[in-house]
Design a protein that fits this description.
The structure is a homodimer of 328-residue chains. Chain A is of the alpha/beta class. The first copy, chain A, is 53% helix and 11% strand. The first copy, chain A, is globular, with a radius of gyration of 22 Å. Chains A, B: Keywords: Chaperone, GTP-binding, Hydrolase, Nucleotide-binding.
């Protein structure tokens, strides 16, 4: 997977820009990751000792609950506490790029000129290593740029969104009254991943019912076992920032709990494990897919019935082992 | 990835059972695939020359459009034409297994004692090679058992569901009036994959509008270019089987079109390519994940900051090449 275009990128200068917290450097670094550019690896290698201090916060929930408004309000609250904040808006499962996110970004204009806020949308379907690895790497760039908190906002509630949200140290699950409520949350699997639940649009009818339902579902689940973090269920109205102080407090409390119990180191180790595995597999996939002659022969043998798919796959793996790669 | 338990499975007998169209043999074969059991490979190897004749039909659509009722009605119509039918109900993205599908299966009881119908739910998250490879393999088993048509019914409309539906030769997209209609379809990416569109619950208000919207969207899209298959938009009421004859006719017409244009061979080649790649990568992932010592060392180097994730991944790949596997 060598890339001759990498020569035009001045890696040490880019690393320096990122470490100095320059927004353009951060944007460029994340673009390289998104493109699966070879230079991304060198840039990330230059940032390792700056990694590991930021609090990574995932934010997810069904469409229509006000995710971007809430992200905006959380950023505002964090800024009032003097924290440097990164925001990654990730749409892992949409087959289309951009559209909806662009609209959301307009609402973030409030922070666009604030040097203490880094914003970035990622449309990274097809990225080498998958959206999870790309997101983890983008977090590393924001961390190195000096972010104290990195918010990962996912769009949608599919399994991939849940997986991305679960990359965080702390996951905030947003719900709103009248969206199917608790049962929808359970179906989407977000009841399992939330560390802090926020019922947004709390001024609407039914907010108290949604809070009660959620608390009840948490009580009934194995999340109420002693020794575990008991996820709080909070009410908020992101549009007016009502209740956002308590949300940011709960997120900070969870971080303290993670550190005290050793769960933080464990979560980060798991995340790194998944990242390294994804990158290794992506490199393997890249090599397999690009050796067209070998792959076509394997496919033909199955199509013509002279081999079954598993044997053809085993043969591909064996040939992969025997192949010697050139310089990376 | 050897599995000592494979000794207790009499592969030749199981292959014989499947080829004889015995329901228990088919169920057992698909279970082995679902479990990622080593014997599945040998079973599939025994079925290769029976592969390739069945018409693989995907059925997808948003929740609430009546997918299982429609599947049921399609099966009834196909049976009245003397076709042997397999039904695979796949839920690729739910983090939970079983539940909803069980309810659906009860409605299939009509066909439960019919020797010409094979039913199977797959809850194959985490399956080696992914849900797509598992589904393709389960189709091979049903084909070998003598199915003329294999219906793949997906639950939900996430990206994974779209991918599974796209494994088929012919994809039927179900919609219903008042479910957000065309715009929802476009968002979910199902406008691109449907070969036959069916507006179910046609007796409801708004059915004609939904049909008109869909036809309009197809007309506006690049699917209307000359030489391409022009997806029909049909009305049906699956509960009373109204309109199902026309649906099954359209599905059969699409198959004829696929054969005439050579697109069938191309689709099947693409499917096989994806399957072989997925299986090869799964075998690699399996080996990487199970070499705990090597993986833990790589993860530690990243966590401790002595390596970046990409370098650690590259090192894992290099060690994979150098490792010699024992007998499979």
């Amino acid at each position: 997977m060598s890339c001759s275009a990498s020569r035009v990128i001045d890696v040490p200068a880019l690393v320096e820009q990122i470490r100095a917290g320059r927004p353009r450097g951060v944007a460029r670094g994340i673009s390289l990751i998104e493109q699966g550019h070879h230079a991304a690896r060198d840039v990330l290698a230059g940032l390792t000792e700056r990694n590991g201090h930021a609090h990574v916060v995932g934010l997810t929930g069904p469409p229509g609950v006000g995710k971007s408004t809430t992200t905006n309000a959380i950023v505002r609250e964090l800024r009032s506490r003097g924290r440097v904040v990164g925001v990654l808006a990730v749409d892992p499962s949409s087959p289309f790029s951009g559209g909806a996110l662009l609209g959301d970004r307009i609402r973030m204009e409030e922070h666009a000129t604030d040097a203490g806020v880094f914003l970035r949308s990622m449309a990274s379907r097809g990225h080498l290593g998958g959206v999870a690895a790309a997101t983890t790497q983008a977090v590393r760039v924001m961390e190195a740029a000096g972010c104290d908190v990195v918010l990962i906002e996912t769009v949608g509630v599919g399994q991939s969104e849940v997986e991305v949200a679960a990359l965080a140290d702390t996951t905030v699950v947003l719900l709103a009254p009248g969206l199917g409520d608790g049962i929808q949350a359970a179906k989407a699997g977000i009841l399992e991943i939330g560390d802090v639940f926020v019922v947004n649009k709390a001024d609407r009818d039914g907010a108290d019912n949604t809070v009660r339902d959620l608390r009840h579902m948490i009580q009934m689940s194995d999340r109420s076992e002693p020794g575990l973090w008991r996820p709080p269920v909070l009410k908020a109205t992101a549009l007016s920032s009502d209740g956002l102080e308590a949300v940011v407090d709960a997120v900070a409390d969870h971080r303290i709990w993670l550190e005290r119990t050793g769960a933080l180191a464990e979560r980060r180790r798991d995340r790194t494990r998944a990242e390294v595995l994804a990158l290794a597999l992506a490199a393997m996939a890249d090599e397999l897919e690009h050796d067209h002659a070998r792959l076509d022969a394997a496919v033909s043998s199955v199509v013509e019935g002279s081999a079954d798919a598993s044997s053809a796959a085993a043969d591909l793996v064996e040939r992969f082992r025997r192949a010697r790669e050139g310089s990376p």
